[in-house]
Design a protein that fits this description.
heterotetramer; A: Rossmann fold; 4-stranded antiparallel sheet; 33% helix; B: 301 residues; alpha+beta; 10 helices; 4 strands; binds adenosine-5'-triphosphate; binds magnesium ion
Chain lengths: 223, 301, 301, 223
């Protein structure tokens, strides 16, 4: 689904990644970890074309990400559910409309029942009419996750979806992702919570990618 | 052609959802409407001023430049002969459409303001006047002058230019100011709407980022902004135009005696001009917002 | 008093830090400057129009209403006697400042446009004209009329009112339009700056929240906004005023012959008026932004 | 320092807290925990006067929070270092100016050396000139912490300051707060990370407040 070929990434003044080659095969489940500021979020942004590599090539669904037109990029993103670390919402629309927005943007109708079910699942059924700024930190993260999966995308990129929720909710989110993975979706989840990665061992055959010294390593069983 | 027109789609129909995705930007919305209204109102006045002075200048220029007077002062026994000679000369002069000697009655009318109604014109050794109407092309004043001097020494050509040209120039200057104001108003309006749209877009950075994140295409995002700003501008300009036209229609009608200062209103078909103002404003807003939207959108991947 | 003036502190001095905390809002900044400039430019023209027509109306109203002509048509042997009688009556009439009979030379000048320079005025049984200058209060035209009819039957009073009043009315109507435009421009500018400031404040909600969070007082936050908008408006208005004044100064001077259509410029001390425009704009901006800032700030704890 | 007397708090449609009476004594260290959406952030907002209680009384430094004028509220906040869950920064100012902003606002001069030392301590010395939007999630949280302590406030309110950082950084932040507490500052830290609370046991004599069923309970040793 997504392939990195010798990818280099840096901002003026700082190099983040160099010589990264990896492949997220269809149906795979990967954790992405590494110290704060290592480049997890940046790597995920490469995966959906918000950032372009400074060197090398990123292929998304077989296409070179920098060669896509803006409209192609937009359509590509409809096949990817993204949980952004900053949970970007439209602050003037109620939660349910925000969650259903990917359907609206793609010109599809939202199924009211499925939407309610999804909100119930993330524990936000009671807040369907709330505006995003009035949600708690954890509620926002759960809403972002709901929005990411509503289109039933081929692939899910989740950037620290459990940063602001407690352990039980973290496990619940992990289980949802594992279930989606069993249904054939490709999952990449960035997290700094090693306990969660350990807990995943029983749920799915996840692999752990670790950013260390600008390189991407496949972490062993030393976790 | 149809393909080209499709860029107008945002204005008509389109999914209502696209409108909801842009938050209503209170102050910017009002600002846009107010700008459009104020500018339309001022534009109406500038237009009315330009038109009134235009009419004025035309009337003066038209009626005065095309008319001239020849004054024949001569001893009483020669005056008829010279008048006949002058008329003969005029008949042969290219550019003269029509010429005739004024009757004593007309001469009296002309002098009445100055001398009173009891003037015994018949008894006076007054000069004889000949009214000349020029054709479109006009005659060669210098040539006519010379010929008259030779053939009717008592005749003096007065083509009114000397008296009225400055008036026409003044009217035309005011018209130029009106048109200049109109151009300024148009330019300032375009710039203001562009900036208001840019301000709204800049304030909605988060909305744009969130929409791109979930796969919205540029035209989907632009549509809501363009539509909203165009409609707002149209509404504001309509209100301003209406208020301006009303104010002008309600102005006391110019009394006929005012003569050279005609009313400031529009006449007949000229009333169609104000209608062009909201349309022009809406087109301005459409183009300006669309360009601003795509420029801002390109900064967000 | 000093305490009251302290609300002006944001404009002068103050820590430079307070300015840095507000991000430079590109489009809104430009918008404010442009609005101020465009409005100042238009205000200059409206002001010039109002002043020119005001001068015009004053001159006409003043010179014409205060002058009148008495025309005496009578057999040649009576004319001198009646003229003397008229002058005598005038001398006794309250409200008459000055009266004199015109010389034949002046009569010729008056008639020259119509009859040509060779008019043998002396030989003509022309009416005698008496020029009357009224005092500030003016005379009672009706009473004078009756008295003249009794004492000098050949005398007719013409107080010019009939000919020129509509002109004065027209000039005053144009002046009213100029003043109305000026009021509109002022109102629209105040509203626009308020809205622009509100838009800037609304767009900076995060800045305001962050500053309140770390213990910034309202006036610290308001200061940066107020200062910036006032200075921007001042700069814009100065530019617009300068451009407008330059345009007016560069306009071809009104030829003297134009007479009733005087030049559109400012004369003498009137040049001080345009200077008031940027000052007024800055005051408007200061008040509008300050009010908008405190209104928005109250919505954030 | 802060006392709640029978405080009730609710938003239209939902009650969050009721009958909450508590006291954060000078020099105390409290954790605040509870499920996502329980009202941790809301309780912290009560503590610095962003929210007013619907019932009862909140006293901050001995003064009733709702009776303070806006300027008094502002001055009161200079004595409290706040780490907001959303890390509010001025996006147009570089990191170092953002961190020094509380000094600037209070009309004091920033000590360049102390500032650098503080940034070094949170691991952001290299990013002093970076703009906040270019920082990673964890870096933003650390910057918010640095800003909260720069005025050396009497009290620190930290809302999930470790949500986006890894375990090592979490421990480091906890240690900083414990050290500040030993210096006499009052600390209240909201967190959903029970491991961190457990880890704190060895560092400081912290008490754990838990929001459960709209009530505030003092959690026992069952953690
Ligand atoms: N636009 C940018 N310009 C400059 N530097 C940037 C930009 N975006 C990110 N960085 C820097 O790149 C580094 C990696 O950022 P990134 O957000 O990818 O980290 P991360 O691994 O997600 O960290 P965290 O776990 O804290 O979220 C950080 O040091 C950050 O400051
Ligand atoms: N302004 C508001 N209007 C309405 N409801 C609100 C508002 N602010 C917060 N809430 C609601 O109050 C509840 C508590 O929010 P709060 O942010 O205090 O939770 P929290 O304990 O901090 O949760 P988290 O651990 O997820 O950050 C949430 O359900 C939230 O939706
Ligand atoms: Mg990150
Ligand atoms: Mg919270």
């Amino acid at each position: 689904m997504i392939e990195f070929h010798d990818v280099t990434l840096g901002y003026p003044g700082s190099d983040l990644l160099s010589g990264v080659t990896m492949k997220l095969a269809p149906g795979s489940f990967h954790f992405l970890t590494g110290p704060s500021g290592a480049g997890k979020t940046s790597l995920i942004k490469l995966c959906y074309g918000e950032l372009a590599p400074n060197g090398g090539r990123v292929e998304i669904f077989g296409e070179d990400s920098v060669k896509m037109s803006r409209d192609e990029t937009a359509r590509m993103r409809r096949r990817i559910g993204i949980v952004h670390q900053d949970c970007q919402f439209l602050d003037h629309l109620p939660l349910d409309e925000n969650v259903a927005l990917p359907l609206e943007v793609a010109g599809q109708k939202a199924d009211g029942e499925a939407l309610t079910e999804l909100l119930t699942w993330v524990g936000l059924a009671g807040q369907a009419q709330a505006l995003p700024p009035s949600l708690s930190g954890g509620e926002r993260q759960r809403a972002a996750l709901a929005r990411a999966v509503i289109m039933s995308p081929d692939m899910i990129l989740a950037d620290e979806p459990t940063g602001n929720v407690d352990w039980d909710m973290s496990l619940k989110i992990l289980k949802l992702l594992a279930e989606l993975n069993r249904m054939g979706k490709t999952v990449l989840m960035a997290t700094h919570d090693l306990n969660l990665i350990r807990a995943a061992k029983g749920l799915t055959s996840a692999r752990v990618l670790r950013i260390q010294g600008k390189r991407l390593q496949l972490a062993g069983s030393d976790l | 052609m149809i393909a080209r027109l499709s860029i107008l789609a945002p204005l008509f129909g389109g999914r209502s959802g696209a409108d909801r995705v842009v938050p209503s930007t209170g102050p910017t919305a009002l600002l846009t409407m107010l700008t459009a209204a104020a500018m339309a109102f001022l534009a109406i006045f500038a237009l009315a001023l330009a038109m009134a002075t235009g009419r004025l200048a035309d009337r003066w220029a038209g009626s005065l430049e095309r008319s001239a007077t020849i004054r024949i002062s001569a001893p009483a026994d020669q005056i008829d002969r010279q008048t006949a000679k002058v008329l003969e000369v005029l008949e042969q002069t290219p550019g003269v459409e029509f010429a005739r000697a004024t009757t004593p009655d007309e001469t009296r009318k002309l002098l009445e303001p100055w001398l009173g109604p009891d003037l015994p014109v018949e008894d006076l050794p007054l000069p004889q006047l000949v009214e000349v109407t020029q054709s479109e092309a006009g005659f060669d004043a210098e040539g006519l002058h010379l010929r008259l001097a030779a053939e009717a020494p008592g005749a003096v050509l007065d083509d009114h230019e000397r008296w009225r040209a400055p008036l026409v120039a003044s009217a035309e200057r005011i018209r130029a100011i009106g048109l200049l104001s109109l151009a300024l108003i148009t330019g300032a309006t375009a710039a203001m709407i562009t900036l208001a749209a840019q301000a709204a877009l800049a304030a909605n950075g988060q909305v744009i980022r969130a929409l791109r994140l979930i796969g919205a295409e540029d035209r989907y995002i632009a549509r809501a902004f363009v539509r909203r700003f165009t409609l707002r501008t149209l509404a504001g300009a309509l209100a301003g135009t209406f208020a301006g036209a009303l104010a002008i229609a309600l102005m006391p009608a110019a009394e006929e005696e005012a003569g050279f200062l005609t009313g400031l209103g529009f006449q007949g078909l000229q009333w169609l001009w104000p209608l062009a103002i909201p349309a022009l404003a809406a087109i301005l807003a459409f183009v300006a917002t669309r360009m601003a939207a795509f420029r801002v959108l390109r900064t967000v991947r």
